[in-house]
Queue: 4 jobs
Job 1
Amino acid sequence: MTVNPQIDAAQGECIPANRRLLPLGLNSLGPLNYAFEETGNAVQKLAEVCDKRTSARAMALKKKLDDFEPSVTLVGQVKAGKTALTNVLVGSPGLLPSDVNPWTSVVTTLHINPKHEGAQTKALFEFFDKDEWDKLVLTGGRLGELAERAGADDEMQEIQRQIAEMQEKTRSRLGNDFETLMGQQHRYDYYDSELVERYVCLGEDPVTGAPVEGTRGHYADVTKSAELFVDLPEFPGTLCLRDTPGVNDTFMVREQITIRSVRDSEICVVVLSAHQALTTMDMALIRLISNLEKRQVILFVNRIDELPDPATQVPEIENSIRATLKGYNAPHDCSIIFGSAKWAEAALTDSIGSLSDESRNSLIEWAQAAEDFAVDDVEAHTWYLSGIPALMDSVYARVREGSGQRTLEKVRKRALNLANQARAATSTGSRMRLNLSGDINVDVKLLKGSLKALIQTYDSKMAAVLKDLQDGLSSRLEKAEASFVKRATDALISHLQKNGEHGSWQYKPDGLRLLLRAGYLNFSNAASKNAAALYAQSAKDIERIYMEVFGVDLDGFHIEPPIPPRVPPPVVLGKTIALDLQSTWWRKWWQKRKGFEAFATDYARLIHSESGAIIQELQETQVKEVLQKISSTLDEFLQEQSEMLLKLAENPELGSEHFQSGSDAELEQTQGALGDVLTRLERVAA
């Protein structure tokens, strides 16, 4: 159900003076836009010369190109300026508030130049449903689950007390609206900072806890997500930006939603502060990005405007960051970009003169050490120095290599198949009319039986492949867990033999994550390889039917196999587990046990419990989803090909229905147009 609250149509966003700066430096976007445009033109041409059925499928492919929206998730340290960075990226300084409620799970998604949402919707807010809220209240969220598994009874009681207090404040603020809001949505045909604050900001003073006057933060307690749809004509493309509140909140609700956001995005921008860089205190961030490939991670070090000597300090900070990442098996050779959201905001709002003396001095120092950009345009020069163009260029370079390329290839291959199918149909119809090579007599019943048998064969092959993948992964994960448990308990017993039962001890779970990640990456490679092989084999079999049953003999005739689905990174391995926590839990855990055997047995049980929860979530979410996509991709391909072959058998002139009463020259013209489509599509690939 959707609720449409009353809105003030007079309200709207404030557009800064220099949004002309937004497309500057986006060198990586040009080739991608060109490839999309050329492919779209070829698909449009295909729709114009084919029958209605093929035309409809071609236009559906064109819509996939039009709706393409690369997704980027921003994560980062508290007070690193992540939200300020998000605001300048969408050309709207001050739009998103920075003081997000520390216990809500609000992920704010900004769709730049979207084409998939109704034109009237500019803001969409979704609330927790009752089951999600009840789970938080009953279990204490992720932190409560950890406390329960670790046997931390006192901590569990404290968590439940805090949640009860939170729930009471929520009900007091919302009154009778509380129950009716659960699972609902609010839509608006506008957005501004005041509206956003109402749904995602603190409803009380962060120090005193006293309610804030007005509507600020009114719905924040129960808001699950916020979406804004931003029309930005100055920006040459579409983009989905997810601004996550953080990964280390009181009840760890946000950690789960941030992990899901990163999993669903191909690119993760980690925002750090030049003052904090990346210390061992940021373990939640390090655990998260450790499970991503280096090409998926971009580090943006913000607030260099506060460094007295950025030219000297930036290389030192970069070396420190890379050393820290390397020490924790994270992608230390990923892209690191330095900049300042404050400088970018000043350039956008034409307020460079209002920067503090310290900030201006840092800007001058940084400019002297950087390349000489358009110095005659102060705003553009400052924009470049802010690091925003470098960040966006890095993002789109990855989009071009990743999701953009995959989308392009999926559409291109489907279009190639449609064009070749139309060529085969037109050729078959033409030969039938001219009585060349004899009449085309296809036993439709026999063809149906052959296609059914082919589909059943591939169903069996796919089932075997999926079983092997699933069994192989389960075996590797179990071995990884057993190996870690043995090493950890051996180390514990060794410690006890040397030090007795007094004192404290901890064995870091980094090795467990490393082993689990290695097992998952092995699965990922095998899944992509096996799916590609099966897809290619099925395409060859379909191609053979065209040639043997219909006598298709055309230059360049080919059936393209589908592209295997992307296997997302195992970001769930970055979840906080009890073994990560440095707290009083461990002291109490030690105090409750007596004897070496009790220590080792209970510790092994705790490891099994924690790792088992991660493995179960990994298999039930990501692995299950990947295997389903691998199977459904082949099903859809075979169904579409079978449908076309049967249509052709039942109506050989299907591909030339517009020209059945026309001349042979018109049929030849159709073949020429289809050949031109193929040439365009091949040119895009090159």
Note: Residues 1-12, 432-438, 654-662 have pLDDT under 50 and may be disordered.
Job 2
Amino acid sequence: MEDIVKLLPDIIANQIAAGEVVQRPSSVVKELMENAVDAGANRVQLIVKDAGKTWIQVIDNGCGMTDTDARMSFERHATSKIRKPEDLYHIRTMGFRGEALASIAAVSQVEMRTRMELNKVGTQLIIEAGIFISQDPTAANPGTSITVKNLFYNVPARRNFLKSNAAETRHIIDEFQRVALAHPNISFTFHHNGAELFHLKEGNLRQRVVAMFGHPYNERLVPIEEKTTVLTIYGFIGKPETAKKMRGEQFLFVNNRFIKSHYLHHAIVTAYDEMIPSDAHPLYTIFLDIDPARIDVNVHPTKQEIKFDDEKIIYTFVHTAVKHSLGKYSVSPTLDFDQETAFSNMNQALQAAPKTISSETLAPSSYTDARPPDKSSASPTYWKSLYEEAKQNKTTVYTIPSKWEQEDRVLFNQEEQHQDGQIAFQIHNQYILSQIKSGYIIADQQAAHERVLFDQYLKYLNGQKISTQQQLFPVQITLNQSDALLLADVMDELKQLGFDIHPFGGTTYVIHGAPSEVLTGQEQEALEKILDAYKQSQELKHNRREAVARAFAKLNCIKHGKSLSEKECRFLLDELFACENPYYTPDGSPTFITYSIRDLEKQFSGKS
């Protein structure tokens, strides 16, 4: 019998590896920029065309390479950073696997020019689809320039999975920002289709954050700095009042490597408990400097996930550091601004602990400050008195638009039509109960109104006119580069929904008018919510108009807890059942549940 197990050809093996390392153009940008940093460059240029689909170029003034090193760098598992197994536990560089260039070259056309400073002549390599084409002497500046052309040209199926240019550009900006934030001592420039998006000079971390996100951020930053026996924590967090509904300004670095950690994100966000809304996201750029032996960076192809030897310790340190910083700078009250008890307790325990640290070596009290408060054990008396006081001072009542009162719609079809004067009322300011011929329904007021508004906004987006409420004083807003691109992507749809927005240079826009549903003074918040919801919908590949309509409907729908009169409840149900699909929200959640008389009879009879 003939043997069937064969070694994969290098071309196929490289394409498989590329599937893990090179997911989209932003993956190429990340790898090339990290290589430039590892080369010791203090100036890095990124040039992109067509969202990286046709052209990505990274130019640095680093150490450059010899002719042999330049050729070897495109071989799989070729690296200058690992020599023995022990080196994996002392990694301080950004790259180390030796897969990036080989993977990139396997799915594109690559040209490299590189020269060491002491050499008079450089070398030029050309590789297409993983196949070596040529290597020749050339004139070149000290450092390295790598150009990646026509990404995925030989893998059309992968290219078809790429999203719009605007979406891919935002991913590139994300990767650029992560590398640039981690290295404020390096100057970075970023050009896209001939336009300069970023020009970041060398400086300190605060200057880098302000240069990247805009001058208003200078007043929003709160320093964070803690030194412990395990790690050093430093960086900046945002003041509670600057928390946004939109994600995207949360950066966590371990040994200058950007990581994604829901666990540590939770540690940071819970430190803001009762200072920001539950759905808000605080700004933070936090660096953890830790002994590489305590972490494992070799757990994910993109190196954006790592493992700690004891996550509970890191969680507690991060959480307490954020709380301490908020208190120290008078952002939130604290009993002792000089030192958090969790740090002193943990440091004492760690100093007495053996070199190998585990959660068992710490006293239970060490974790007390980092855990979310146990609301079940708290006495409700004080909060009840506050609630009663607020209730006496202010009662919020939502008013359904008056146009509903001018319309006479049928609630159900002929079989289920309710009688004139049928009562509908709220349950706990959240649900609406109404009788029908066969029994009764319970509608979710938020879901029902979201369905109504979604259908209404789709009509506006399909050409039906909507009135715009002009601002007496135009509102100026400044977005970060990524959100500005997102806004430009949906500008036409926003104008159709009643927004009157005009560019004002760079990432600044002026709002001259807004839909009547948006309250004066809440224009920027409304835009941020719409852009955030649109961003999430876009990841699910929804139609652009539907995504914007979903976002605007979520923003303006009646929320749970809003009080409605009996008349307003009936009008809401009328509008719901006038929709083509009244049964579900745009996201697929039910808007109401039907109960029959027979269901009630079974409950009272005790029969199943």
Note: Confidence is low (pLDDT under 50) at residues 333-342, 349-421.
Job 3
Amino acid sequence: MPTWWTKTLIPTLRQDPAEAEVPSHRLMLRAGLIRQLSAGIYTYLPLGWRALNKVIGIIRQEMDAVGAAELLMPAVEPIDLLSRTGRDVEYGDLLFQLVDRRGQRQALAPTHEEVITEALGAYVESYRQLPLSLYQIQTKYRDEPRPRAGVLRSREFIMKDAYSFHLAVDGPGGLNEGYDRMYDAYCRIFDRCGLRYEVVEAESGPIGGSASHEFMVLCDSGEDTILKSQRGDYAANIDKCGIGDRPWSYDGGPATALDEVHTPGLSGIDDVAAFLEITPAEMLKTLVCRSDDGWVLAVLRGEHDLNEGKLRDVLGVPVHLADDVPARAAGFAIGFVSPAVVNSIPLARMVVDPDAAQGRAWVTGADRVDYHVRNFDWRRDVGDALQGDLVRVADIRKAVDGDPSPKNDGTTLRAVRGIEVGHVFKLGTKYSEAMGFSVLDETQKRRPVVMGCYGIGPGRILAAAIETSHDDDGIIWPPAIAPFLVQIVPIRLDAALCKTCGDLAGQLGAAGLDVLIDDRPERPGVKFKDADLVGCPIRLTISEKTMARDSVELTLRAAGRQKAQMVPLSEAVARCREAVNCQLSAADLIPAASR
């Protein structure tokens, strides 16, 4: 059955909303897909909900095709469950928390790793029950400090999360096999949704695990930075990206003595550089970090940023920037620390980035508040500590545009922006060990279950599609996820035209093409503008003029109005189907409501 515009809710807007920051946010509001209820919380209106359900339908088909079973887990989970893996602390203020009438602390679920592990642990006892894959499509909650860009970073969002369970990493039925199967399924999902995407190496973040990949849609308004090699043989997000070999040496430092300079209240690199009339590249940044086995210094060139994931991998233990209060109590002059402090405060170790491990006259902190020094020299001012195991040189900074590719093939990295639409993780045994989920293997010994985790944001897919496919007039939908494939626009609303519209819509529906009929008593110009704004792939215009020729005017949204063509009414259905067939599978032609 077709949908008549006057029988649904499509509140289009003429002007751009003031709060909209990026094209997808602006157009989703203007085309009547969503309405903001509060910061980061949106109502999906009928058009938006139809498009979202088409995305979900594709996801569900591909998850079913790889043998994943669907379930639904609660949106509320006990804080005690999260505390068993430490994620109550890792998520911190991102958690929406509440206390129920029994006094139990609960959280609105940000993800469901603990919940699914608890459930499987109750029912799976033997390796014979593995491998096993399950998924859900559920609402998640994260109290983002700065929700922005519409549904791209919201506080309440729908997510497809899948989990796989294995006895081992390698071999038949292992995690690697299951991970590759899900990876391929994700590629099919994004291909079917009409997205142009890159797969990049990624950090696992608070999810954890040994390896992960992100699926990124490249666009200038993307919130994430991706670095790609010039040859296209490497891509990673900024939190994971490696940097090629960089020569380093402590030799060749200045012969001049240290020169202490009073820099009152100037603890920031940029402020000090401006005060001393130098560039940040001439300064050393010494960051005080904390690991389980003591203090750690991370030393970078002034303009570079620490990559905590790289530092963790170098040390082999979790590490984080130290809190100021205990660091000051230990004797660190926070904001004015130099690498030489290694000789006065007991440290676990010091890690120096290669760009900072150079023999030259550096400016750095003086290890007392409000003072810096010129002419710092590694050999002279750190001395014997450089020779032992306490200090090492390693890549610990975030990559930037122009860095050498980690392939070490003479090419450089180029930075681009992207939107993350999917993320897959090799979790390993992080959650199963923390929650005591083990099975009996073939020798009747207990082994922790090996897990994988796989997430997709359907709303982010919609937003990414709009970000990369729109013009000044509105959305240009990829056909597979358009709220309607065809919009019929009658110029007048007499009985004959309405009957023709209804008959044609019925024929299109029988052919698998869902239809929106704009039956509003509006001027043609208003209807055409709204048709461009809503962005259905095909517009069929019916008027007295076209009826006189027993035809309809067919316009492809992607081609623009200038490409409109008259098509015999008897051929309209075939021409519409032909127009979308090359971009859609047979499954995608099934209307969302009948899936």
Note: The chain has 16 helices and 32 strands.
Job 4
Amino acid sequence: MTASETSHTTSTPAPAAHCRPAGIWQLAFCSLGIVFGDIGTSPLYTLKECLHVASTHGETFDRVDLFGILSLMFWALILVVTVKYVMFVMRADHNGEGGILALLSLVPERYRTGPGGIGGVSGMTLLAVIGAALLYGDGVITPAISVLSAVEGLAVASPALKDGVVPITCLILLALFSIQQAGTGIVGRLFGPIMLVWFLTLAGLGANQLVREPTVLAAMSPWYGVEFFLRHGFRGLLILGSVVLVVTGGEALYADMGHFGLKPIRKAWIWLVLPSLVLAYFGQGALLLRDPAAAANPFYAMVPAGPATYALVILASLATVIASQALISGAFSLTRQAMLLGFLPRVTIRHTAYDNEGQIYIPEVNVLLGVGCLALVLTFRESVKLAAAYGLAVTGTMVVTSILYYLVIRHTWGWSRWASLGTLALFLGVDIPFLLANMFKFFDGGYVPMLIGAALIAAMLIWSHGRTAVMAQYSGQYGPFETEWPQLRKSIVSRVPGSAVFLADSRAHTPPVLVHYVERSRSLHETVVLLQVIDDPQPEIIAGPRYTVERLVDGFYFVAVRFGYMEQPLLVPFLRQVAAAEKIPLDPDTATFFIGHSEITPQDGGRLELIPEAIFAYLKRNAVREEKRYGMPADQVMEIGEQISL
């Protein structure tokens, strides 16, 4: 019998209302509440922290020193966020997604798979894994310290709330993580207006002070920043560890790019966020020139005591709570990228926007982040004890991003050697001093994101190595159906009435679960469907065939189906339509769905050591199973288990 192939389209057009993409300015507005919360609330504490570090180390500051700090802060915003990320790095997207793992996917294959790494992972891939894991660590700390500092601000306005700081913080965190399931688009529309008011307030307060003391604008000259280091030497590096708070959240702009796109984020930054931040910082500087006593809290000193202070505390509290959203959304994007690249097991991904594939919600990550944040709040109980943890993880990620970006522009985009090296030197010339300055924070709290990152690095490398080992073990066992079926047919005693569905990874390999079932039962159903499910990068399948059917020999059919990211990949109704349209003797309501499950039994002497193999087995057991993802009826699923050792 000669196999023949036919295709049939079963999709229906998407509703016109859903097909209209959001405008750039609308997305830019929504991005205010998602992307810019972290970096947008840095005026609350950055200059204050710089002055605190200076006083701790016995430095006396004059007008020139204040200009030096403001100059460093201004040029950090320009060079790190505006030039590096907004103008350069964010151009490197992978199917619209940003972040360090998306950047890795653009690096040439020879650098991603070459020697020099650990456990079969190349040096460049290892760097990307480290950077991503560190960003996760920062993602756990940011919501905890942001919400905790916000509630502490309320306690300043009303001392009676001091004993309730930790309980109120925990309640706010629970509410924050509970609304994530609504999707970043809805959360952005909810938080966007608040952040718009916040940035306009920053601009207004800063402009009001600048009008009274415009001479502070001279600090925009880079010479004051250079002179600061010439005057203070090594101690100037310690101040740089606090200056980095200006750009904390810059990496989140790139990680969150898939939620809104490059153009909306770029417009929001250039036209609103950057001007507001610059006005706020220089406004505080202008105030300090007129009233040095305001150094205790220069931000709140920009408004007169009384009702204005209470109103600003409330607004700042709301903005600081929202600041945690950037890294929560970034963690969702990073998790999806890590899963697609084979560094994490499958998780539940819920797409929350029809016109933007990047807007997602991952319940497992949301729960882990929420639990981690609550644990940090209950352990440290004061934001000042967590403040030292800020910056170390994200500056490490910034260095890794610069190195990977160099490989992309030099070897993927074909830039000249001198242009590529010049760009790398410019980026590392800023990143490395920030990283070195933050190294001094390690024992003061910087170890927290580093420990979280180390655990995630180990998990990602173990999963990648274990997954590769499993695939290598299976790929050498079973070839195409045409090769395997003649041997399997000899083992079959009878073909029983009914139909069976076996999930297949590809047409090139026979599903292992089919081979195991035939070898053990020596029987097979009269109708057998080998089903491949393909995830398509569009919301719904409205163009081209949704599925193809290949009629094989002896009652076998190979069916490949595509599902868009906004569609529920429910197999029973789909197979019901296919069976009727293609005249396949298949009844999905009575068919048996066969699921293969490999039980990892750790043993010495394999591809993995005993402990890593045990960790891989645990991760595999807790990955999302096919029957749950594809909505298979529980009473129609038969799981075939196999014990293997790597």
Note: Strands lie at 4-8, 350-351, 360-361, 494-503, 523-536, 547-551, 556-564, 592-600, 637-644.
